[in-house]
Amino acid sequence: MSYQLENTQRGEKYNSIFSKVSPAKRRNRTARAHWRSRILLGLYLALMILPIYWLINMSLQTNSEILGSMTLWPQNLTFDNYIGIFTNSSWYMGYVNSMLYVAMNMLITICVALPAAYAFSRYTFIGDKHLFFWLLTNLMAPPAVFLLPYFQLYYSVGLFDTHIAVALAHCLFNIPLAIWILEGFMSSVPKEIDETAYIDGYSFPRFFVKIFIPMIRSGIGVTLFFLFMFSWVELLLARTLTATDAQPIGMIMTRTSTASGIDWGTLAAAGVLTIIPGILVVYFVRNHIAKGFALGRT
Amino acid sequence: MSWMVWTVPTAIFFSSIAAMLAGMTIWEILSPTIERKGFLPIATTRGDRLFIGLLSAAFIHLGVIGFTSLSIWIALAVSAVWLLVLMRWG
Amino acid sequence: MNNKVPNNRAWLLVLPMLLLVAFSAIIPLMTVVNYSVQDVLGPNASFFTGTEWFKSMLNDDALQAAFLRQISFSLIILAIQIPLGIGIALIMPKRGWQASAVLILITLPLLIPWNVVGSIWQIFTRGDIGLMGWGLRELGVEYNITRNAGDAWVTIILMDVWHWTPLVAMLCYSGLRSIPEAYYQAARIDRASKWAVFRYIQLPKLTNVLVIAVLLRFMHSFMIYAEPFVLTGGGPGSATTFLSQSLTTMAVGQQDLGPSAAFSLIYFLVILLVSWVFYTTIMNMQKDKSPHGGA
């Protein structure tokens, strides 16, 4: 940090020597550019938040207020919509189901992806490049293609309407993604570390768990974030593979439209609640994320 | 397994793909491939050329089935010739 | 890449992963191929039809229209999201609590389940209870996504830009962060213009992440399903019916297993071709750039 500061100061000095523009004027100009970019960013963020704000706004109103008049913020603040969700087991079980299969999927995926990514980053073997490409094609296969056979496959092995079925199905795109990200991180760890450990008498499993995994901690964090994200937001497969016992929250939300119209307040509250787990996850990995979004290879 | 509704042609199709993969693996063990540049714009290994050949064969078949009234066997013959050309000079 | 050790026992490390993915990928794929050459009427009643389904699918006007819509949609959103994402990444704060705060805020749309994204925008654009629909009506703009195809298109594109530009921005942001401070200082000493800094320092560093961004965005937009389904239901008419939706309607709604399987395979082959071209490009770029990195 101090090195950087020093460098910056030196840069300023060069500027003042070579630049025709006086340093004060230059600083003024950069300050103006700085403010301009801040305002643009603020504008973008405001526009981005607006639809979400509207959802929150609606979730705190009663249906009669939503339908009755246009209010930019709740006039009679009410938490009834949220209370309704938290006291009805068919509602909150949707969240439990979603979180269960997402957690299972993250666990399975990371356990099989870690050794596989290590193999890809350290060794060449027959068919390695084609295997890697085949994995990526699964990332790109539209789930709609697989819907029917999936239903029949899981039905025939007796896993239909269980959490593990959805967790396994989401492995289709999450394992390739995890290997892709982890491989990038592992390749940036020098190979000498492995060799030294083996010379020191570490066995492969012990080296992997004791030394290697702690070294790519931030990579694993970022990978888990992505696994969470793609498993949490996916609905097509989750919906096809469940009926009642493991139904995801996204599916239960469709229940708000009844014969007497749509229960807007509850729909909005349920929507807001689906955003919260994401915020928690992103908060925990916020410091690694900037690095990991480049998937380890910049 | 009955839900997979196997038919003879698709079974032959998948067996030949599996046989090709097995054959390529054995060939690779006996004499490892060297990346080289043929008439294709990129340097390729044997496996790459096989993949390119199979993918283009799929599109040749689609073209023949969808937009001409030629027999599918013509498409198959063209694809086989194309695959051989690709493996040898690609 | 060149310091990797040849070792075929590495297959043992890959095997568990391979079994899991193969279970989810290969068995269903084989089944789809089997369906595509038959007329499946029930569990034990199916007739061999040969290539008939492929022929009818390739010549189906509705599907060709959906395919063209799909391609235009993907190209439009790429043309908007990539420049916008780069722009946002350039103005994001570099360090401090502001950087974290902006980061968390910006990722928000990515973490919302896709059908909820559809619901959010459906509510937001309704003329009676949505802020945007209501606001436009108050301003005297004729706006109705259930009747006007143009409005529906604009809304879907707006929604996709809202939903996915953050991913492009994050990727570019992390690419920018990897540029050493010394480069910028050198540029300052040379009194390089902002444009020159962008063109000769920032953009070259971004190419790698941009290829990933284009690849991910293209693939995801090509299989977009839940958001337009909830927002417009593919309407008005079939103005916003994209490929995934036609496919799902055919397979689940009408139970036409044979044709929808044939259609799936054509769809999959197109995706396979495009991803192979992208993948080969990425790999060749990495090979040219650095001796190591990338499988």
Q: What's a concise summary of this model?
A:
Chain A: Residues 95-285 form the ABC transmembrane type-1 domain. The complex is a heterotrimer of chains A (298), B (90) and C (295). Chain A is mainly alpha-helical.
Characterization of this structure:
The complex is a heterotrimer of chains A (about 300), B (about 90) and C (about 300). With about 300 residues, chain A is mainly α. Chain A is about 75% helix and about 0% strand. Chain A starts with a helix and ends in a 6-residue tail after the last helix. Chain B starts with 7 loop residues before the first helix and ends with a helix. Chain C starts with a strand and ends in a 6-residue tail after the last helix. The relative contact order of chain C is 0.13. In chain C, helix 2 (about 50-60) crosses helix 12 and helix 7 (about 150-175) crosses helix 9. Chain C is globular. Chain C has one domain (about 10-95, about 165-290): MetI-like (MetI-like fold). Residues about 290-295 of chain C have low confidence and may be disordered. Chain C has a two-stranded antiparallel sheet with strand order 2-3. In chain C, a hairpin with a 2-residue loop joins strand 2 and strand 3 (about 45-50). Chains A and C meet through helix 1, helix 2, helix 5, strand 1 and helix 6 of A and strand 1, helix 1, helix 3, helix 4 and helix 5 of C.
